[in-house]
């Protein structure tokens, strides 16, 4: 667009008139001053201030923002809180060394209460504070005869080898009874091994000893009597398994928070890198017309190379680790962002204000940073906010196809993948907890992103 | 128009060649261990023999030439590791129809449900349907699909009594996989249609029509909906492709003998001929899908002309 002189015949008398009335001192040349220019436009209007005010009006989004901030803070604070397990620590039973696997979630690790005066069996356990106890008198091997002295629906009182005690009577023991089981005494047997308890309650961890404070017991050699109401715990420890334990005997609470930390780190880093590269290339692609054809072809090629190949190659070159994942996801993810930015730029590239800007001699760099990008802030923010859960989600997918992080680096991806195997068992909590955290993060980013995009759009200000 | 299409097909062919070459070179950078099941136990002679047999010892340009020559003869080669020695065309011909049927049905359902949902959301802005739809969309995009698929499977089979595993001849086993496949697309279509319709409703011509006294329902149907549907049309071919090739979770959950996840499977097993063949198929469908999307747009909206230079999008 070139400004051409209007008809010279018209212009000449005009110039003469101007020369007649204007003397040299009437006008001075004003130097370019951006601050003054900005000031002239709209007094007292601050873009970010209005954006913030607009955003704060959306109660739901602010609520989710608080939840997200709290969650973020908590993931970082959690390891420093008292009474936490190490995320990768495999917790063993101190005496039998069996893994404490698949323990259901609970607010305490107390699994049995013994009222005052209960007689318990003490196992050797060298500790100042704690005693290892249970109420198992003896155990009966599978298919051994014993005498039933009293029949109960859930518990039977029996005699075996000169000792008397209670055995459980349910689907775990399947004792074979005569036609009339109440006509005691008689001989019976079970196809399973049985534990004989001192009372009609199971005070053990599947046969392993529980732990009780010595101050609540009166020790008498091999046996002990509780002096008050005593709590019998899974471990000589008061730390609860809030989210239970997984099948390897690791504390799921610690693992979930450690995994959230990893996944959020991956998500945020990938989103930032993707946006950085995507915006840079997208702007060039959209604005510089001579690059358009070339970059479109490059895009078509990159977009059609399966992500999995890139992932395998990257994890082959580097060992599977957080950095590898970040690199692989950035390498494959920036094209989507670039295309998005490109499409937006193409839409606004030839609007009149940009044309005017170019005519006034502004450099391409200035037009991009002052005209184009500020206009796109709202949509870029939305994409950025959605890229974080997107990256976390693709981490889940990468783990699913077997290219994810090793299990020793907990992430929401490998926790969900491990939990998936437990879905139809009573251990489905191992899937539920990581899924809830992941969903909360995703919903929060989604809603905050949308609301912020609305707030950042100047049409919604005022 | 015909000239435009030919030109586009020509550039697409070039793109396809570049894609195939890049992928061809990339898969040849894969670790050698990946070609063997028990790499550590084999001695060097066996490894060399096998690599020779796979043709991996030749210079890469010779391999590339052989591949393209085979391609020109319509020969995709034989599978190297997935099911050894079987022609790839046979494998795909066996698996593709099922996946395509599932994908088409699920796409149809997503369109039938997603578009009315999106329209209802736009019409009742901040009314019941809008709130319902928003919750639905947020839920679907927030909960990882891998997770809600499992819940659908376990609840569908335990509470509603649908069979757990897919069986081609029993129509009841088709319901859960198709339902799971459709959810994501329903949310996607509803979300975008709502957004386009809301944008469209704020335009001046709608205000004018309302001022003229045109009935509200007529404005929505004849003006707003038609104009908002134009950008949607473009997604449909590509999204069908994604539905077919991306149903990896669902096909493995219900053991559907289809193509979903086949690509990932052969890549992780490093079956190079299969990877090349699948990449070729998927990217050609993708490219054709994009062209088709553009053509559909022209059919729906006669104002759009692709042949003109500088199209509006």
CATH topology call of the largest domain in chain A = MetI-like fold
Percent of residues in beta strands of chain B: under 5%
User: Largest interface, counted with CB-CB under 8 A?
Assistant: A-B, 36 and 35 residues
Distance between the termini of chain A: 35 Å
Mean pLDDT of chain A, to the nearest integer, reads 82
Give a verbal description of the structure.
By secondary structure, chain A is of the alpha+beta class. Chain A has three domains: 29 residues, no CATH class; 239 residues, MetI-like (MetI-like fold); 124 residues, no CATH class. Chain A is built from twelve helices and 14 strands. Chain A has a five-stranded antiparallel β-sheet with strand order 11-3-2-13-12, with no helix packed on it. A five-stranded antiparallel β-sheet of chain A has the order 7-6-5-9-8, with no helix packed on it. In chain A, strands 1-14 form a two-stranded antiparallel ribbon. In chain A, helix 10 runs antiparallel to helix 12. Chain A is elongated and about 135 Å long. The mean pLDDT of chain A is 82. Chain B contains twelve helices and no strands. Chain B is globular. Chain B starts with a helix and ends in a 13-residue tail after the last helix. The relative contact order of chain B is 0.13. The interface between A and B is large, with 36 and 35 residues.
